[in-house]
Specification:
The complex is a heterodimer of chains A (217) and B (164). Chain A is α+β, with helices and mostly antiparallel strands and 217 residues long. Chain A contains 4 helices and 9 strands, in the order αββββααβββββα. In chain A, the strands form 2 sheets. In chain A, strands 1, 4, 5, 8 and 9 form a 5-stranded antiparallel beta sheet that branches. A 4-stranded antiparallel beta sheet of chain A has the order 3-2-6-7, with no helix packed on it. Chain A is elongated, with a radius of gyration of 31 Å. Chain A starts with 18 loop residues before the first helix and ends with a helix. Chain B has a single domain, classed as Butyryl-CoA Dehydrogenase, subunit A, domain 3. Chain B has a 3-stranded antiparallel beta sheet with strand order 2-1-3. Chains A and B meet through helix 1, helix 2 and helix 4 of A and helix 1, helix 2, strand 2, helix 3 and helix 4 of B.
Chain lengths: 217, 164
């Protein structure tokens, strides 16, 4: 009967020991990977915004922020009189209407023939900006409107007065004619509208910051 | 040789943790527009932490193959290969083979600090970004450097045993 001793047993090749450091490296890495709870934190690439169209016509089904960045009115009101007593300019405010509902109302810009809105909230404290995470929905002052073909929106502009608000005019916009970014409408004065010019901004909801910054220019 | 092997084992474990542990934290800023970007897309200014393997993976994903391969060679393959050769050298009885193995190790060792240089380069590049973005080393980088230092001690011990 043959007795196989340790001496006779097949020896591993000389380089076999060289695998031990590699195994230790893999074990240590694997151990940390196993205990790490948020292993993907900061390393996962966010690709959710990659399919959003950033220029040209609006895409059906996509939701957009829409706001007027500038509204200019004629120097006189619908009755061809000065806007406010004391020859002050009108206190302009606009409402955005979609499907018959007011979906956004701007703040009032006092004594302006050309009123402008940044589209951003001005109610934020600078400390909030530094410390808190503010959602874009809260910060962007615009109506959220989903585009479908044939859809229309309406801008209703008012002169805000203490006694009663006066109509400045209304303008209906066919959304098929809107494009992402800046849209300008030059209007003539009529019996029902003293709006001279409307600049609308259309921003796709969910696009990334570089794209939004470019569109806002 | 037992202490030498212990040091190699320590260096290997430190290397494994250093490769996968957080190494670099980037604090993105956008200069004067930082407040604006924090409003619209706060996630764009989120602080990101990367491991060395994470950086390599990211470089591969962004098709920066040259940098990815360079970093993988210097920070993963070169140190692992060096430690493997160290371990192999500790088991060699033949002085001639031992000496030639040490020469090979010293050749590979020339790349041993290249990965630290790569990290320093990344930090310098990030700090030169407009907008005040900053980068900070995390514990993974210190473990990685400790692994390199540990392997240097191994090298000293092997050199001294060669002379004796």
């Amino acid at each position: 009967m043959t007795d196989i001793s340790d001496f006779d047993a097949p020896k591993p090749p000389a380089w076999f020991g060289a695998v031990i450091p590699l195994l230790l490296v893999l074990l240590a890495s694997g151990f940390y990977w196993f205990i790490s709870t948020d292993k993907d934190n900061g390393e996962s690439e966010n690709t959710s915004n990659s399919k959003i169209k950033l220029r040209g016509q609006l895409s059906p089904g996509q939701t957009y922020y829409i706001f007027a960045s500038e509204i200019e009115v004629y120097p006189t009101n619908l009755k061809n009189e000065s806007w406010d007593q004391g020859k002050k300019g009108p206190d302009i405010r606009y409402r955005l209407l979609w499907k018959g509902n007011a979906v956004f109302e701007s703040i009032t810009k006092d004594d302006s023939l050309i009123a402008d809105w940044s589209g951003l909230s001005i109610e934020l404290n600078w400390k909030d900006l530094l410390g808190k995470s503010v959602s874009s929905d809260d910060a962007i002052k615009a109506g959220r409107i989903r585009f479908e073909e044939g859809e229309k929106i309406e801008i209703a502009v008012e002169d805000v007065d203490v006694a009663s608000d006066d109509d400045v005019g209304r303008h209906e916009i066919d959304m098929d004619n809107l494009s992402i970014g800046k849209n300008e409408f030059k209007l003539t004065k009529t019996d029902t509208s003293a709006i001279r010019r409307i600049t609308l901004r259309v921003l796709p909801v969910g696009s990334n910051i570089q794209d939004l910054a470019n569109i806002m220019k | 040789m037992n202490l030498t092997r212990f040091l190699i084992a320590c260096s290997s474990i430190l290397l494994g943790l250093g490769l996968i542990g957080p190494t670099l934290t980037i604090f993105p800023k956008a200069g004067d527009l930082t407040w604006f970007i924090k409003i619209i897309a706060p996630e764009e200014l989120a602080v990101s932490t990367y491991s060395i393997l994470g950086v390599i993976q990211k470089l591969f994903q962004t098709n920066d193959l040259f940098l990815a391969i360079l970093l993988a060679l210097f920070s993963v393959f070169s140190p692992v290969l060096k430690l493997s050769f160290y371990w192999h050298a500790t088991g060699l009885k033949n002085p001639k083979k031992f000496k030639s193995m040490l020469e090979v190790i010293h050749y590979i060792g020339k790349f041993s600090m290249a990965e630290v240089f790569a990290l320093a380069l990344i930090i310098v590049v990030i700090k030169s970004f407009p907008g005040g973005s900053t980068a900070q080393l995390e514990w993974g980088a210190y473990l990685f450097t400790s692994s390199v230092i540990c392997s240097m001690f191994v090298s000293f011990r092997l050199d001294s045993s060669k002379r004796s």
